[in-house]
Amino acid sequence: MAKIFPPVLESQRLILRPLTVDDMEAAFKWTGDPRVNKFMIYPLYKSAEDGREWLESLYEDEKKLDYGFVLKSTGELIGSGGLYYHEDIDVWSVGYNIAYDHWHHGYTPEAISRIIEYAKSKYDLHVIAGTFAVDNNGSRRVMEKLGMTFYEDTEYSKLDGSETFKAKTYHKVFNVISSSSTTNQSMKYFRVHTSDIAWLTKQPRGIFTTVGKLVDSKTLTEEETAEYWKQREYFEKVLPVPPFYKDGNPDHAITWFKDTEQGRDIWNQLTFYRQMCSKYGIQLYKSETTEIPGKIIYEDDYQIAVINPKETNCHTEFLSATTNLDSEKSSE
């Protein structure tokens, strides 16, 4: 079977190139180092020759982007990694390894960022994800530098079954609107907000930010604060976080929920937030429109994010703490 090699790439300090069997000795610097191997899925290599099968198996699938990381300054191969597509869930997983002597220099996020950039230019890349052992703080920091955030708790085992690790999966959703997007002129969009105008967006402040401010100001009781963090963890697991929030929302985007099954599910999970607003005297409103309320810069199954908001034929109404969206729809 003919090999499908990805192109050579370049970053500020690295050359990223396909690996070959000739790299066995260099790769043994990390595949044979127990400090590097500690949390890896593969067993510790006992000799450079152990890497032959791995290296010979590469480049049979164009959507498995494996690269060697070579220092421009010395020509030394110091690590490897890349992106690997999972068609069944439309997610690209992230993987990487780097020799111990080159830890803590930022080489890994530099390399993976460049590979992501290439993959985005060639493929319809929506989501990246990566899993790391809870004690592997170095890998966590790499994913955070890539803009990835918590998705779920999980676990994994080494391939030989010798050890199992409690782990976390982080992910990142990109500002990509696919051709299968459900956005259209007949879709309804809604926001839950207060009458206060947010300083950054110059739009009514959303419910998540509003309740977050109650927590920051220590307005909630200890029990309510504990429930807030429980609820927040839930939403961080099920609701994709638009990536621009990691950068401080520089475009001043605002999000609207879609009136889809997924969007309504989120609505019906907002009971605690609505109860806190009601208890502490904050009036909530629901604004609803059938028009796209601005220029879309992000979309997923639950929501859209827009900039340059425009005037729309928008219906706004007061909300109680327990209003159910499905009951509203059935009564129309």
Written overview of the protein:
The chain is an alpha+beta fold and 332 residues long. It folds into two domains: 165 residues, 3-Layer(aba) Sandwich (Aminopeptidase), CATH 3.40.630; 143 residues, no CATH class. The chain is 28% helix and 28% strand. The strands form two sheets. The protein has an eight-stranded mixed beta sheet, sandwiched between helices. Strands 9, 10, 11, 12, 13, 14 and 15 form a seven-stranded antiparallel beta sheet that branches. A hairpin with a 6-residue loop joins strand 9 and strand 10.
Quick structural overview:
By secondary structure, the protein is of the alpha+beta class. It is 28% helix and 28% strand.
Coarse structural class: alpha+beta
* Oligomeric state as shown: single chain
Spans of 5+ residues with little confidence (pLDDT < 50)? 176-185, 322-332
CATH fold-level topology of the largest domain:
Aminopeptidase
* Inertia-based shape: elongated
Strand order of the largest sheet: 1-2-3-4-5-6-8-7
Could you tell me the strand content as a percent range? Answer: 25-35%
The string of secondary-structure elements, in order, is: EEHHHEEEHEHEEEEHHEHHEEEEH
